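U., I forgot to send this yesterday:
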Amino acid sequence: MIPLNTYDTLILEGGSLRCAFTAGVMDALLLLGPLKFERTLGVSAGSMVMATHLSGQYKHFYRISRELVEDGTFIRFSSAWSKEGLMNLSHLKAHVMRHAPLDLEALARAQESTQAFVVTTHLESGEPRYLQPQGREWLDALVASSTLPMVTRGKVKFRGEWMFDGGYSDPLPLDKAIDMGGRRMLVVRTRPMGDHASQSYIDSFGAYWHRHNEVLAPLFVKGYERYNDTVDRLLRGGDNEGRVWEEIAPPYPLQTDAWTVGAKEVAADYRLGVDVAMNWWASRFKSLRRPD
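Result:
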């Protein structure tokens, strides 16, 4: 068990609206701590939670998620084959800019002491990219990390290069965190500990869509295998080099892990995240108590 306030790295897994759980965890820690990290890495929607946590905007991700699933524009099955796809990220970006803007000044201040990395996948090479957006670049970076074929618009340009969902090249960036010098890492998951993924319908679609692309096709065909390998490593809690890590994860599959998600499911997973984080925090203090 890693003592509080000694973590140097935070990793936030993606998972679309499953990150309502992540938002609950991080909002609870924001009020209880907050914990300080040398670096943070966010993948897909996890990067959105990362940004709002660093800016100190309590319930920001939760509020946006509830509003979007209720307005009928963000998720439309009839739009799956359109330019924007099933989930309209352009609508999300416009909604955030108009109704719930990121506090870019607070983000800039946070970046003075904490390195913040948004994980994306480079469209041409298929390699992960770890973006460090500044100022108004943040929204473009967050959208780039979350875009997928059919589900969203499929690609987003950032600093002149096309990017898409970072979950396909580095869904759980444990190795990257280690390469950056991480030795005490906190990983917030959107699946239960040890829960393996399988090839999804979107993976199958992506594999077919990119079947003639030797760089991208393997990401959709075998990407889940890399994910499962990291899931197994996380269960070990550390390595032989003295590096340690710890997971905060839902105890069971989340209600938002479905194609049809409403405000009720978002709220339930958010509350679960808050509860899990509070229990995790309380367990740290129990471990410090001396026996009578």
